[in-house]
Amino acid sequence: FAFGPQNLTCQQLTIRFDDADREVIECHAEEDVRIKGHFRGAGALGGAAGGSEGPIEATADEMVYQPAKALVVLSGHADLRRATEQIQGERIALDQNTGTIQVSGAGRLAALSGEGDQQEPIRASWTGRMHLDGRSRKATFDRDVSLTYRGSTREGAHGELDQAAQRSEVPGAGRRKTSPEAGKKEEARRGV
């Protein structure tokens, strides 16, 4: 697999080949799927890796890999981890051609933003979907969104996180909480 899983364990594995050239068309893994590999764009939220290609670990009930499309789809209790980043959901699609990750349905994201001593946690949850672009370092969230970034938690119907611009937005946010530690950091930054 060119950019797919380099180490795959599961209970059942089915591989479909093209009749003409015997290339792999699809790899379908089921039951207790565990993957270790690389994915371009997996470091989508920055952290120490800043959006570059890097090692991932994933678990799911099922995985479908289509080499021609450079597409990996994890289904059923899907959990994707890379360095200080984690994405969970019922269905996670990793598109290596575009460097995007999409979660269909409810999910959660946890990551660290920044470098060294300046790292801050990012937390998000949603019930609709998430689209994350590893190249632009932007993520959008839909339905019942809770987004914590730079010490503030915002809740609303939709949310956006732009790691490159270091901003988050939840239009019409219903509630905003700031931790005491984040307030102190912001005061120190502004020289208050």
Helix content: under 10%
Give the overall silhouette.
elongated
Contiguous helical run count: 1
Span between N and C termini?
A: 54 Å
Extended strand count: 13
Rg, nearest Å: 18 Å
- By secondary-structure content and strand pairing, the structural class works out as mainly beta
Quaternary state, please?
A: single chain
Mean of the pLDDT scores? 81
Q: Please trace the helix and strand order, writing H or E for each element.
A: EEEEEEEEEEEEEH
Q: Can you tell me the residue ranges where pLDDT is under 50 for at least 5 consecutive residues?
A: 42-52, 186-192
Biggest β-sheet strands, sense, barrel: 13 strands, antiparallel
Proportion of residues in extended strands? over 45%
Can you describe this structure in just a few lines?
This protein has 192 residues and is mainly β. Helices cover 6% and strands 62% of the residues.
General description of the model:
By secondary structure, the protein is mainly beta. It has one helix spanning 180-190; strands spanning 5-9, 12-17, 24-39, 54-66, 71-82, 85-95, 100-113, 120-126, 129-133, 138-149, 152-162, 167-169, 175-178. Strands 1, 2, 3, 4, 5, 6, 7, 8, 9, 10, 11, 12 and 13 form a 13-stranded antiparallel β-sheet that branches. A hairpin with a 4-residue loop joins strand 4 and strand 5. The chain is elongated and about 55 Å long. The termini are far apart.
